[in-house]
Amino acid sequence: MTVCEVVTPWAYPERQFTSRATVSVVIPTLNEARNIGHVLPRLPGGIDQVVLIDGGSTDGTVEVARRLRPDVTIVQQTRCGKGNALACGFAAATGDIVVMMDADGSTRPEEISQFVETLVRSGADFAKGSRFIPGGGSHDITSFRRAGNKVLNLLVNTLCRTRYTDLCYGYNAFWRRCLPVFDLDHGKNETSSDSLEMRWADGFEIETLLNIRAALASLQVVEVPSVEHGRLHGRSNLHAFSDGLRVLRTIFVEWRRRLVSGTEAQLNMATVLDFKAPQLDNEVLLAIGTEFEYSGAANSHS
Ligand SMILES: Nc1nc2c(ncn2[C@@H]2O[C@H](COP(=O)(O)OP(=O)(O)OP(=O)(O)O)[C@@H](O)[C@H]2O)c(=O)[nH]1
Ligand SMILES: [Mg+2]
Question: What is the pTM of this model?
Fold first, then answer.
């Protein structure tokens, strides 16, 4: 586990929890009927909610998911793109911890426990998957994408003074109380016909945006090693060049946004502090043992 960014504007006590943290897993799907069956049955036990956000799949993805996991929460996204899907999924999540992963078999469900345990035990706000730290890896990334990710990663680290090792990776987890920091527009109140158009953060730039906003709000970010596998069936929705340009634009716009409104990060930080407060009663917490129970066993929903 590599501490990626240790910016501590407030002191963290040795965080111990009085009750079990609940976990929501958020999975965007676009025509993943042949893959989702390799993901849902392998989710570990102890997951409290599975949110599947469908982008209008025509291959029966939703039906397959319902059959495999009758308790799944199905959400229809409000616009287009993976980013919009995730924003809608986060809005529907109810767990203390939100884990985001893909449906194509590339992100292994067995790693969820590592993300959750890292959040609980480290006191971090955001557990960011990384393929490029010891223990991580990728069986999927092309040399073009690897180079692009490296350059964009370097740019973010330079501008935001972070130490990220993997900017564009979709396997991450965070405490749901941090959602105000991400300030995502899930567009629930939209009714006009043009609302289906992609907006800011609606595409594959979503991970970059989350990483930058987390850093600018001084969240504690910890990297978790993760091994990415190849997509099992079907074709990628990502277009390395055009989506790479969206990521580049995101980096500059988000960085500039921070320069223009320097107070915003402070405000967001205050929001996070408010959210933390009820859980951080030092005296009580230090007096009790960790009661976090997270079972890594396979679930019985398959
Ligand atoms: N709901 C929804 N899900 C999407 C959309 N685009 C992609 N996804 C899902 O987001 C996840 C990641 O998309 P992929 O197409 O695998 O993109 P990628 O992982 O960056 O690319 P590969 O590594 O080539 O697979 C998958 O679970 C997709 O089904 C979308 O517009 N809407
Ligand atoms: Mg994929």
Answer: 0.82
Contact 165, 133 (CB under 8 A): yes
- C-alpha 299/C-alpha 39 separation (Å) is 12
Smallest Cα–Cα separation from 223: which of 109, 301, 127, 98? Answer: 127
Which of 102, 149, 205, 229 to mutate to test ligand 1, by most ligand atoms within 8 A of the CB atom? 102
Query: What number of CA atoms fall less than 13 Å from residue 89's CA on the CB side?
Result: 29
Residue nearest to atom 11 of ligand 1 (CA): 102
| Integer angstrom CA distances of residue 13 from 190, 277, 281 | 42, 12, 9
Least confident stretch, 44-48, 218-222, 295-299: 295-299
Residue with tokens 């066993």: 297
Q: Where are the alpha helices (DSSP H) in 143-290?
A: 143-160, 179-182, 206-216, 240-260, 263-276, 282-287
Ligand 2: distance of its center to the CA of 107 in Å?
Answer: 8
Write down all domains in the chain, each with its CATH number in brackets: 3-239 (3.90.550.10)
- Please check whether residue 177 is in contact with residue 275, taking contact to mean a CB–CB distance below 8 angstroms: yes
